[in-house]
Design brief:
Bound molecules: adenosine-5'-triphosphate
Family: Belongs to the ABC transporter superfamily.
Domain ABC transporter: 10-241
Protein name: ABC transporter ATP-binding protein
Organism: Thalassolituus hydrocarboniclasticus
Keywords: ATP-binding, Nucleotide-binding, Transport
Mean pLDDT: 92
Shape: globular
Helix content: 25-40%
Length: 261
């Protein structure tokens, strides 16, 4: 079945949001977007264009002041419990081991943790290359490892949707590239619908099925680009002509927006 004929999983229809109705200026406006189940969509755009606002609306943490957000045809009207969110900083609890940190949301949600949960935690930690660190404390881990723990913690709840808000921006370039490939491996094994915000155009092209390019505030959709680069992708993908073409197309939108007006 082609993507176009699939039913949308996340749908935004003429979505807009105004944080300050008295002032009346919109943060985002007229957003139309359909995301398919298990699709990986990256969002890029200038600072302050409303990327995080978009993500918060999908999570139900923010209700749009115009238009409608729905997930599987049901309008989002309150915070959803089927989304996993990964932020720029993993905010691990310093007094718990890595394993207890990733199990914490399950314990909080259901009041107990089963043997199956513990096995799954170990399996995901192994996929993230953290097996040997499951009984270590967070401050014994590097920044990249802590961020992997944050991703495992979000995945352990087995959310339908994974929302990632600049998850790798605090990491150095090499760690960032590696953790991107780790994320792709985990996503391939455990498919999820991913909305991934990044300031890195090459990261967006390397990871995503489609890249949403937003305009300056009030943010709206400038382009939605199919990343037709075959998977699995690797470090050498960056050297392909198609990669260069796609990143150039996005750069043009960001740095020469008037050319598309
Ligand atoms: N709670 C809030 N109250 C008022 N204005 C807000 C609030 N949150 C965000 N804004 C404004 O809405 C606009 C969009 O913010 P948002 O954080 O969604 O942008 P962003 O694209 O994620 O930015 P960045 O790339 O810098 O993280 C910005 O102009 C911001 O100042």
């Amino acid at each position: 079945m082609s993507k176009a004929s699939e039913r949308a999983f996340v749908r935004m229809e003429q979505v807009g949001h105004c944080y300050d109705p008295a002032a009346g200026n919109m943060a985002v406006q007229q957003i139309d977007l359909e995301i398919h189940r298990h699709e990986f969509v990256a969002v890029v755009g200038p600072s302050g264009c409303g990327k995080s606002t978009l993500l918060r609306m999908v999570a139900g943490l923010l209700i749009p002041s115009a238009g409608k957000v729905s997930v599987f045809d049901r309008q989002v009207t309150e915070p959803r419990d089927d989304v996993g969110i990964v932020f720029q900083k993993p905010t691990l609890l310093p007094w718990l081991t890595v394993r207890d940190n990733v199990l914490f949301p399950l314990k909080h949600k259901y009041g107990l943790v089963t043997a199956a949960d513990k096995n799954r935690a170990e399996e995901l930690l192994a996929m993230a290359g953290l097996s040997q660190f499951s009984v270590r404390m967070p401050d014994e881990l590097s920044g990249g490892m802590q961020q992997r723990v944050g991703i495992v913690r979000a995945l352990l709840l087995n959310p339908d949707i994974l929302l990632m808000d600049e998850p790798f921006s605090a990491l150095d370039a090499m760690t960032r590239e590696q953790i991107g490939f780790d994320l792709l491996n985990i996503w391939t094994e455990h498919p999820k619908t991913v909305l991934f915000i990044t300031h890195s155009i090459s990261e967006a092209v390397l990871l995503a099925d489609r890249v949403l390019v937003m305009s300056q505030r009030p943010g709206t959709v400038l382009d939605l680009i199919d990343i037709d680069i075959p998977r699995p992708r690797s470090a050498t993908t960056i050297n392909t002509p198609r990669f260069a073409e796609l990143t150039a197309r996005i750069r043009k939108h960001i740095y020469e927006p008037e050319a598309h007006a």
